Amino acid sequence: MPLPDAARSRRHLAETFFTERGRFLLSWDEGPVLGTVQDDGALHLDVPADAQRASTDTRIGLDGDAVLYVESREVLVTVQMDDAEVVVAESGLSGRSQRWHATLPPAEHGHWTLTDVVDAWDEEGAHCLVLTVEDGAGSVEFHQIGAGKPARAHRPRVPGQLVYWDLRCDAAVLREDRGPWDSRLHLERPLSKATPQAVEARWADGWEGHGLLIETPSGSASRLVGWDLAAHSRITIAGPAGHIDAARFTREGSGRVLVVATVEGSDTLHLWNPDDDENVQLPLDGTGRLRIRTAGSRGIGIYRVSTLGGSSWIWLDQDGNLHRSGGEIPRHGGQATLSHVWYGRTPALRYLPEQPPVAAVVSLHGGPESLERDELRWDGLYRELLDAGVAVIGLNYCGSTGYGPLHAQRAWKTWTTAFREDVESCIAAAAEWGVGPAGIALLGGSFGGALALLGCVLRHDLAGAVASAPLIDIRRHAERAAAADPSYRDWFGARFELAASATPAQRVFDPGHLCATDPGQRVFLVHGSEDEVTQWQHSKRAADEAVRRELPWTLVTEAGAGHVPADLDEAEHRYRNIHSALLQVLGMDPVTEATS
């Protein structure tokens, strides 16, 4: 069945967003300088018509074993390696390019294989590259190379990915991922060979011998920490309030730090000055999600997207001024509104249509330790619901981050009681708009998909649920995660009841328990057959059990798709499946596009 005109316009928005979020913001030259990798395998530049510095050559080849964009020099670097021989090609945005060679010492076993490359500084303060290579026996080494200079080798003493290298302060920082916990950062001394030192934090940035970390201590909110790599000393930065999402040094010599912090579901932008400990919130028009895309000596580039506000590119120059350019996602044309509200103890983003709502969708993010932000969620689906007169409640349910540790931990091992409170609060809010439980659908992805099913179990008078790539069986999921990384065992154990002897109701997120929906509730599971995070087989088992119980469940299998769409076709397909399923749950002119 062909899509009606309204659905075709929705599909266009989803396509536009998927394409735009995959573009690289490389620089600013009277507007954003953007790059897109196209079908020919090259990076194609989109340069403003009145650009002063960027080249008119809008195609840069990406032939090589590794590709790196060096923000500080605005140069795209490709590295081609043939055993110990390395060829480096540098293509600047200004059109200037150069090509140079380097030779690595021979591998002790077999041949070198290139696995990573970072921009770095040598002892004299000159820019160089550091290659991460592995020999035939699996031994890892770092090799510093530069044009016309001999290679310097360093064998790391601890595991991890190299994130920073500056021999001016004899520092190499490696990041050791630890599953759900903050990374362990190891500081090694390639010159002095001193004993490595470690901290537990998320690496945000490094510049001029200093690291910028985001720490999340147990029982505390996230905080910024400055790390002096020469002295191995740390100092907590008086950063802004809210959930700190990202931070970068401004790179113009002042040591100032640009910080993105999420407050009440929307990102805010702050400039912190270490000299006087001054924290200034930069003016932004409206709300939205901010993602730092590049940070160089001329400024910092940011991508911004909002459900109602559309998208834009933002540039912070050396003087602290903001420049803006509209993106391809337009502002929403209607009179829908967004506000941050509290329903009892539950925070939410409330989207209301222009006219009184005819139905409501409660949207549940994944995680659980994530948060609902004002961004183009579900590829713009909220807009289409608002246009159809459907209110959307983007719920930051108990267990979400961004509202302090008490809110995040309130649901641990008490998910039924805690989430029931969240659901009841949403039902009460919808009643004030004249929408009863039968006009409310639950929409969730990943862990949020499991909550959507749980909500229907808790309230049999809700219309139903749409669960995308749901986490159906928490015990088996935890076992699989712990087998890959043992650190997940304690993480899951602190939050969920996992004992095999426990009943499904005690475990809560169990196929047998989540199937206990009502015959009057429509339930759709949308799941990729090759999901690498949650298991399609678990959804299949739950759907089969529901059908055995003669419940109106539908499993929509997306053949070959993963946990999230990997390309434009998969994104469009999932969007259509979710949209069609929601319409059917709400009984609003269903368009059957999903295929079982």
Automatic annotation (TrEMBL):
InterPro entries attached here? AB_hydrolase_fold, Peptidase_S9_cat
Q: Which residues form the Peptidase S9 prolyl oligopeptidase catalytic domain?
A: 385-586
**Residues annotated as transmembrane:** none
Q: By its UniProt entry, which Pfam families does this protein fall under?
A: Peptidase_S9
Record's superkingdom? Bacteria
- SUPFAM superfamilies named among the record's database cross-references: alpha/beta-Hydrolases
Q: What is this protein called?
A: Prolyl oligopeptidase family serine peptidase
Which species expresses this protein natively? Streptomyces olivaceus
From the broadest rank down, the organism's phylogenetic lineage runs: Bacteria, Bacillati, Actinomycetota, Actinomycetes, Kitasatosporales
